[in-house]
Predict the structure.
Amino acid sequence: MKTEDLQAKGLTQEQIDYVMAEYGKDINGIKQERDTYKTQLSTAQATLKSFEGVNISELQGKIQTLTTDLANKDAEYQKQLAERDFNDLLKTTAEGFKPRDIKAVMPFLDVEKLKGSKNQESDIKAALEAVKKDKGYLFQDVGIPRVVAPTPGPGGEKTDDTRTQANNALRSILGRE
């Protein structure tokens, strides 16, 4: 729109200024919107240029490989946690049976079967009871008596001599009175 065209139509200068001001408001908004679109277009074109030469199928293959590796690592981690939990449960349960050495008891347990069990704790107890029944020498049933010599009283008098005390201690250990 030109000023000359409006003057040719018979508008006064005041009317022309008003029309041009209103027209300018609309045009400025449209120009800003146009500039925004130009900026977005140039950004999009630059981004597209950065992707030139990129093999999409190769990237998808890498993503698939990494996803598979992550799943494998997660499964391995869960397996290690289950292994640790099982070993802790086995050790804790075995301590209740007082084995002389847990490593000596392990060959007599079917560990793989116990790991696959749904009720591991009761199955471990049953297996340990069976081993204890068959191989009792691997477990400590009786507490080892502690032999302590009596102390003399306030006067320092001895009631028995040392030899008698030793004999009595040996008899109590061997179960002979």
Notes: Residues 11 and 127 are 109 Å apart (CA to CA).
